[in-house]
Amino acid sequence: MKVLLIEDETLAAERLQNLLAGIGPTIEIVMHLKSVQAAIEWLKTNPHPDLILSDIRLLDGLCFEIFQQVKTEAPIIFTTAYDQYAIKAFEVNSIDYLLKPVQSEKLSTALMKVKTRTSSTISGIDYIELTKLLQASKKTYKSRFMVRLGQKIVTVPVEKIAYFFSENKLSFAVTTDQKRYPLDQPLDELVDVLDPQSFFRANRQFIVTFQSIAEIHPYFKGRIKLNLTPPATEEVIISSERTPEFKSWIDQ
């Protein structure tokens, strides 16, 4: 079975690759893509696979845009971190889906179901309507991060994270117990998956939680300086333009 993998999170992609390898040696991942546009271009210029395994939310939009632009008879299994309200949309449309983090047993079951799918079932999916249903669903936010530490992968719950910061184009999560974990996503992407009631984008380098703020000080020219706990390696300054929004967030 030739499988096209569409997944923008490196660790999630590696997990799926390992799970597929463990299920059977006859499964071959022909390509791993990370964006809507890359998938569209690849499908337009390459033979279609026996199966497409795709995350819903990619770097440049929802994966449904791919299948609106490129017609395929390949069965599609979606992976998703959406909540139960959004999942109803999949069930109504008779679409196979797997909740993240994907489990080996459920992936095996989904692959077995693929063998019974027909091209008429696949072509009958209304991706435009499905997009509307998902967008109307209650928005969910990231609850944990998978991070690599040497030869192992650990899970870091969001509630244990004090703040995020970037350094030399790399992103890190700092936990309340003063541990630092490297992340795949830049801060621009992280801010979209974090609950805005709990996290605030202080500046280009920092996303903070209320619990991480030890002290707040007035600073030059209407700016604000934050002292964080655990202590940050550099000053955290909020611009005068962002100060009103920060005050509204802190006073919620």
What does this structure look like?
- It is elongated, with a radius of gyration of 21 Å.
- Helix content is 32%, strand content 31%.
- The termini are far apart.
- It has helices at residues 10-23, 36-45, 64-69, 84-92, 104-114, 119-123, 127-136, 187-193, 243-250; strands at residues 2-6, 28-33, 51-55, 57-58, 61-62, 76-80, 96-99, 144-149, 152-157, 161-167, 170-175, 180-183, 199-201, 206-209, 213-218, 224-228, 236-238.
- It has 252 residues and is α/β, with parallel strands linked by helices.
- The protein has 2 domains: 2-136, Rossmann fold (3-Layer(aba) Sandwich), CATH 3.40.50.2300; 144-250, Beta Barrel (OB fold (Dihydrolipoamide Acetyltransferase, E2P)).
- It is built from 9 helices and 17 strands.
- Strands 2-1-3-6-7 form a 5-stranded parallel beta sheet, sandwiched between helices. A 5-stranded antiparallel beta sheet has the order 12-11-10-14-13, with no helix packed on it. A 3-stranded antiparallel beta sheet has the order 15-16-17, with no helix packed on it.
- A hairpin with a 7-residue loop joins strand 16 and strand 17.
